[in-house]
Amino acid sequence: MAIQVASQNLLTSVPHRSTFIQNPSPVKTNYPKVFKMALSQDEIFDKVQEALVEALGVDDDEVTEEATLVGDLGAESIDFLDIVFKLEKAFGIQIPREELSPEDILTDSNLVKDGIVTSQGIAELKSRMPWANLDAFEQNPRVQDFGNLLTVGDLVGYVGSKTA
Predict the structure, then answer these.
(1) Model pTM?
(2) Which are the contacts of 86, defined by CB distance < 8 A and separation ≥ 6?
């Protein structure tokens, strides 16, 4: 009998469902409308690899972290347009040309002397491209060798910096 009385009290104390429907109160949150999960380095590498395989017509196993885009994978300047397009689409990011191709630094007579990037030019490159490993280039900073500098690992680092 005590259970029956308790259940009757419970039923009469709960508002009728029409109360909730007639007087809905909006829930306010401060959450952004889109949630982005941070990608792991492996996930970024996989998407970069896919973009390079499609753009350059190379095999998956050729696209390693150490492979250079120009020397090892055979990318030409026209290919970079396709690579950038595929990366922007795959990651939902914008890639300004000057971030991947610092031509303004490599053609600045204050930063390049006799085809060699000066220490000030190297500092500017490092500032502009913190995701790139410039150690080997710094040992012999000839402008003509800069195009063969960018590796798949550098590209993964760049995309990672844009998606973080």
Answers:
(1) 0.71
(2) 51, 54, 55
